[in-house]
Structures are given as C-alpha cells and as structure tokens.
Design goal:
428 residues, six-stranded mixed sheet, alpha/beta, globular, 2 domains
Length: 428
Amino acid sequence: MVDGPWAYHSRVVDTELDELLEGLAAVAIEGAKAVGKTVTAGRRAATIYELDRDPVRELAAADLRRVLSSTPPVLLDEWQRLPAVWDAVRRAVDDDPSPGRFLLTGSASPASPQTHSGAGRIIRLRMRPLSLAERGVATPTVSLAGLLEGNRSAITGRSDVGLERYVEEILASGFPGIRPLGARARRAQLDGYLARIVDREFPEMGRPVRNPGALHRWMAAYAAATATTASYDAIRDAATSGEGDKPAKTTTQPYRDILEHLWVLDPVPAWAPTRNYLHQLGAAPKHHLADPALAARLLGLDAAALLEDRPVRPALPRDGTFLGALFEALVTLDVRVYAQAAEARVHHLRTHRGTHEVDLIVVRGDQRIVALEVKLSAVVDDHDVRHLRWLANELGDDLLDAAVITTGEFAYRLPDDIAVIPAALLGP
C-alpha cells in the first residue's frame, strides 16, 4: 500500500468503470498519457499485458487466443501498439459476453487502418487528468449532478482556497505521477512530456516530424489560444509570426489531427441546441489542451508571470488575462470530469457576433441544460451574470440551473437564483 503524495487518488471515473464492468464484457479506457488509465484499470485486473513492451507485444502477436483466455479481467495496456487486439477482443465478446472480461487502455488511436468500431462489444470510457475534487484541494459542497436535477436547492459552503492556490494547481497539473514532484522536477517532467509527443508519439502515429521547432511553435500558439475560439488560421499565423512564407494548411493540419488522436488537444465543442429557441450560434470549438499545465509550460509561464499578467508570446486576441483563460481551463477540466459521471455532455455557447457567450453548457440527456460562467474573481456583480440572465430569458424551463464559478470564499445564490460557487467547492 502506497501512502503520502504517491497514494492512489480515488477517481470520479472509478464508480462509472465499476458499474460498466458489472454488466459489460469489455471497456476501453481512453485518454492522454499519464492521466492514470493503467493504474486505475490495473486495480481491477487479474492479468495484465503491457503491450508497449516489445517482448509482451511479440508474445501477444504470436498467440492472441492464449492472451485473451487468461484469467479475467484481462488488462490490455496500450492496446493501440498492437491494433489486432481490438478486433480479437470484439470477436471474443461475440463468443462470450460475460461481464468483466476485458479492460483496454490506450493513449492514442492506432495509426494503422481503421479497426472495427467495436460498437455494442467494447464500450469507450474517457479519462482525464485529476479534477480539483480528486486532488483533495477542498471538500466539495456543491454537486454538478445536483445542479442537473434542476430543483434550485440551497447553495452553501466556504472555501479557503485563494487565487495563489489556484495558480499552484494550474501549474502542478492533474497528472498523478507529476504533481507530487518538487517544482523544478515537475517542470522538467512536463517539458519531457511535451518533447515525447514530438520525438516519439508523432513517429509512432506514422508521421515523423521533419521540423520539430515548427511543431513546437504551433503547439505554443494553440496554448496561447486557450479558452478562445480563435480560427486555426489565426493560430497558424501566430505560430509563424515574422515569417514571410506561412506554412500551408496541409503542413499544420496534421499537427491538429494527431494531437487530437493523442488526446493532447481537448477542445470544447460549440453547443448546437436541438430545439429552435436560439439562432445564429457560432460553431467554432473553444480551444483547450488536456491539462492547463501543458499550456503554461508551452508558453514558459510561472506563477509570477501569471499573477503579474506578463505578456504572452505568441499573442492572440482575447478578453481578459491569460491567467483567467487558464483558470477557465482548470474549471473546464473539472466540469467535464463531473459531467461525464452524470452522463451529461459539455459545450460552450457563443453567438456569431460574440454578443452573448456562456463558457460552459452542460447538457442533460433530455437536452435541458446547466449554464456556467467562469470568472477569475472573488466577487460577482451584475456584469458577470448578464449572459446567464439573457440565456434564462431565452430558454425558460429548459435552463435547469445557472452558476458563476469563482475564486471566491463562499457558495451562495443571488436573489435571482443564479448560484455563485468557488471552483474548489464544485464536485461531481
């Protein structure tokens, strides 16, 4: 049993995974490297095959039937390194759909020709870095699942987490194996994480990088676009500032595609309501990396730079400070973890002209929503809730609840029932 900072962090996804394994034969846990997939799956496995190790992969390739008949649950770690595993598991489930037989973990979609979707046989489960609740920053007093119930219950709680602590959490990352390190070692590990993407992950995806500097600059420009809907042309221009000849889209498009396959990019899609009560909504995604710490490292930002609001290079247009963007990214990570547990989806809202914007739209199965604004502020005024009030007038009863997520001390409701919730007090 490991104690202290290296102890296993209970994950919100644990409950979801256990419920799925009770009824399903195969579950694939997907997400960026280092989010904890292998450790979480390994706690449930009786047999483990680490397919990123050459001897194990060769054994599996030679006799997949024996591998799949091992004592269940069988964990096939980094399955994309041997894509034939996917179809073999699918066929094994066809033959015997008994629950809890297989766990697959993957940090990338395979570069080989498309495997069968596995629909109905292998259920995909997304895993992201640690949320604030999973990190143990504070004990949540407000449940996102509760907000999705729409009963507008009382909101209470007090947080002693201040702005400096939120900055610390942004820089520490939600990667379980990185955040317990000292500050310098943590920075080195995050730099190594980013270097590995260029040096190893791209070649393993069948796309060797001829100009590593160009890819790094594009990633830095994407990081500078955090929490914006900047066009990919604008990101490309920012990545090549000062260069007379801009690289063609055919050069930069693969960056985006492969980084999405690696789950390093985690954009929030625009909300497209199925009912006709809103018109002229934008369709561009809001840009986010898998963890805001990656954005900070790509741009060389430390706590002092963020708190002093030093200029970010490359520069992209945005409203507010870059620390505000990273705080929104941190809250977005939390909300996505909690929403998945509640079987809800997360989007953002922006009208074409930017007249109205809502940072996060959490959509329940019946298409009714919870709307969340994120503010790098300890206090909330009428200006901060104007878009939420507009949306309430537009949606009526389809708006289950609305809240502003802050860096403040207290959780409460305003007179018009809009909730004010410190980020550390929001939980699943």
